[in-house]
Amino acid sequence: MTSHIPSDKRFLIFFDFDETIVDETSDDMVVQAAPGQHLPGWLKDTYQPGRYNEYMQRVLAYLAEQGVTESDIRNVMEKMPATPGMITLFQFLRTRPQTDFEVVLLSDANTFFIESWLRRAGARQLFHRIFTNPSTFNKDGRLVMRPFHSHDCQRCPDNMCKQVVVRDYVARRTQERGRPYQRVFYVGDGANDFCPALSLGPRDVAFPRRDFPMHRLITETHEAMPGEFKAVTVPWVNAEEVVNRLRKYVTE
Fold it and tell me: To which protein family does this belong (predicted)?
């Protein structure tokens, strides 16, 4: 539900989680909770391209069988470092007037991994919405993850196309608000962040992490199909670079 979000915000900003907010991939980090901090070869061999979500469900089942608890997994997630400058970016967003930013997290991780880290970092309240694969602990103590949705996009993994989420959210919120946002921002790093950034318009801004797959795909698209990627592109190494650019936009 989005009806509780005030309709007076000027800007909408999307964040990815893994390797964007945190400087790790949470699905890789959870392996640190496993015995010997590694997974057996037979389990790794079950991975199939495009079916990562199903593979992670098997990993989580294995961890539960090995006696890994909810607090074990939470402790691993809480230890993940933020990317350089990200806490500064969060502080900037938090201290802006209430009417500036609507903040949304969009990730192919899962609710438990993300919520664990955000709560530890004191950043949960910053996000108006979180779109990710739902996960809950069942009565046997296993973290059960479900796919976020299904879609027809050929570019994205079976369980999540972020462009579908971005398009639907922007359209729904524009209708609820009765007007569009001044600009939409997207902060990401991965190949699955390129797809939603393709839906941004010429006034919007993509913030790809420099030299990560999202940045490379944007660069390749500019070269191969000029005009296909419409958003302004601002690569970043330190998220303080994102803050510096946002400072310019909020004064418009």
Answer: Belongs to the HAD-like hydrolase superfamily. PHOSPHO family.
100 is in an annotated binding site: no
Assigned token pair, 63: 């961890």
* Strands of 129-133's sheet in order across: 129-133, 101-110, 11-15, 183-188, 205-208, 232-233
The model's pLDDT over 176-230, given as tens digits with 9 standing for 90+, comes to: 999 999 999 999 999 999 999 999 999 999 999 999 999 999 999 999 999 999 9
pTM, 2 dp: 0.93
Residue 189 is labelled as binding a ligand: yes
- The answer, yes or no, to whether residue 157 has pLDDT greater than 70, is no
Q: How far apart are CA 199 and CA 148, in angstroms?
A: 20
Catalytic residues: 16, 18
State yes or no: 8 annotated in a binding site: no
Whole-angstrom Cα distance, residue 190 to residue 197? 11
